[in-house]
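Sequence only, no structure available. Ideas?
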Amino acid sequence: MTVASVLNIVLIMAAIGIAIALTAPDVPVLTLYIVLASAALVFPVLTWPVTHTLWMAIDLVARPMGVEEIAEAQAWLTNQS
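Reply:
I predicted one. Tokens follow.
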């Protein structure tokens, strides 16, 4: 969740910066608001698979699987085949 929030905030802030830089003297505030609000709803959906996978990798590094969990996972995989 944290990884997704940070990534999405960075994407929105970058989009705001680029939009303001490209339209500097006369910034269309309402248009930017509508577009960026829509992007704020769409970005989390598009980035969810990547951020979820990244968070699972961080979690596995922080809390490695124990012997019992590995045996349970192997048993589950054998039963699925």
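The two ends are 32 Å apart (CA to CA).
Hope that gets you unstuck.
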